[in-house]
Amino acid sequence: MSNPAPQANTTASHDDVAVQTQQGLYIDATALSLHLPALEYRNNALYLEDVSINELAEHYDTPCYVYSKQAILDVYQAYADSFATLDHQICYAVKANSNLAVLGVLAEAGAGFDIVSRGELMRVLAAGGKASRVVFSGVGKAYEDIEYALNQGIACFNVESISELILINEVAQKLDKQAPISLRVNPDVDAKTHPYISTGLKDNKFGIAHEQALAVYEQAAGLSNIDIVGIDCHIGSQLTEVAPFIAAMNKVIELIHSLQEKGIELQHIDLGGGLGVRYIDESPVSIEDFAQALLPKLTELGLTVFFEPGRSIVANAGILLTRVEVLKPTKHKNFAIVDAAMNDLIRPALYQAQMAVIPNHLPAKGLDTDDMQPWDIVGAICETGDFLAKDRLLALATNDILAITGAGAYGFVMSSNYNSRPRSAEIMVSGDRHQLIRKRETIEDLYNDEVLWQN
After folding, report:
1. H/E run at residue 446
2. 260 C-beta neighbours (distance < 10 Å), count
3. Which of 86, 178, 232, 314 is the most exposed place for a label (fewest CB within 10 A)?
């Protein structure tokens, strides 16, 4: 016997699709189209750009990640337009989504890239990106990483520790090169986000403490193969307010003035990324308002400005399609077991992230609460934490296709083969065209490189 549906206090029509969970959380499919402009219902069926979700599911099977090319370009262009009055470089954070097709689209649009590994740099170059537009972040750069990046001619290393600074100098000496660097300064600013993605507090592993930065810059100035070119700051991810950015920027500008007094002149200021997106009901600051808040002081500063957005460019350009395999109503909970799982999308389990679940078709009876039930959307992995969404009011049947939105960032890139599950396919849509941009793994792929023990 299934649970009784909670009473919805919103009247909805085809043009105003609002549903409510037991927790009082609203998911508005029409409003979602305002922040997922490529996703919409047409004649009661869901489309991404001009391709039906049903066509994608039939052609590529599920689960699969699908990205809108135009949605990616639109957000990138919004950044470029908002900061057009400044000498600036938008360096897309590759860690958010590193598929070659995604990188290639952004490279063609003129983007730079923020990387955290040699592998990400190799991906950028393979996708047509220019090393001269790459900044190398991350706390654990190895000798081989630094050597490779120097030989490729990257724009800058964002240095996170004194030992890293010394290592970069040693590698540059061996190669007879000058290594361009900035220091990643930890301003001890609360980003007011999930603790796992807050990076600018003194308790976090990232960056050099603000109060130590001046001394470290002076040390860098004395190293033979170091070229000081900038200063960097990144305080966290999924920030929905501009105040933490302004607080961090003010502390960095204060430090720039102190450096100038010491005779250390910089070429750029890097304010990192982290601008949040709307997954369900968040209200993040717009890119335009974000720019307007920062422009006055940045214009006065007169330096080239780098930004490192990732999530805000690709999150709402992507969806994860999954099929309902089993419906399991119980006395206390209704479970919809789907073919995607936490190995495909770990954000809900790892961050307690709330991501919208949009049905491929609207209910035949409309939003009649008698036809809808609260469901937990779960996978088949042997973990209680294997869930994609909880308490979502939906009218479900087996074989229904669901679109989990906001999946363009930290989706496939964080997927795994737990329980020996192959990773899903990735697809890109442009207008009425769709293309496979990563083939689905097979089970045989998972153990092809393994070798039995020989007695």
Report:
1. helix 443-447
2. 11
3. 178
- Geometric angle at alpha carbon 196, from 140 and 229, rounded to 5°: 45
Predicted confidence (pLDDT) at residue 17 exceeds the cutoff of 80:
no
How many alpha carbons fall within 13 Å on the CB side of residue 56?
Answer: 36
* Active-site residue identified among 64, 91, 233, 382: 382
21, two tokens? 């969970």
pLDDT in the model for residue 319: 96
Residue 84 exposure: Cα atoms within 13 Å on the Cβ side:
7
Cβ–Cβ under 8 Å, residues 124 and 149: no
The residue length of the chain stands at 455
434: three-class secondary structure by DSSP? strand
- Contact assessment for residue 117 and residue 95, using Cβ atoms and an 8 Å cutoff: no
CA 252 – CA 217 distance, rounded (Å): 13
Phi, psi (degrees; rounded to nearest 5) at 136: -110, 105
At position 217, the amino acid (one-letter code) is Y
Dihedral angle, C-alpha 128, 92, 297, 84, nearest 10 °: 50
Per-residue DSSP letter, 207: S
> Which amino acid would we find at residue 294?
L
Identify whether 64 is a catalytic site residue: no
Q: What is the rounded CA–CA span in Å between residue 178 and residue 159?
A: 15
Residue-wise pLDDT tens digits, 74-130: 999 999 999 999 999 999 999 999 999 999 999 999 999 999 999 999 999 999 999
Distance in angstroms (rounded) separating the CA atoms of residues 116 and 136: 6
Of the options 3.40.50.150, 3.10.105.10, 3.20.20.10, 2.60.120.620, the CATH number for the domain spanning 138-307: 3.20.20.10
Let me know: does 210 contact 188? Beta carbons within 8 Å.
Answer: yes
Residue 194 has what DSSP assignment?
Answer: -
Give the largest CA-CA distance in the chain. Answer: 75
Which residues, other chains included, contact 246 with Cβ-Cβ below 8 Å and sequence gap of 6+? 293, 294
Spatial separation of the C-alpha atoms in residues 264 and 258, rounded to whole Å: 9
Q: Which fold, 18-68+315-446? A: Lyase, Ornithine Decarboxylase; Chain A, domain 1 (2.40.37)
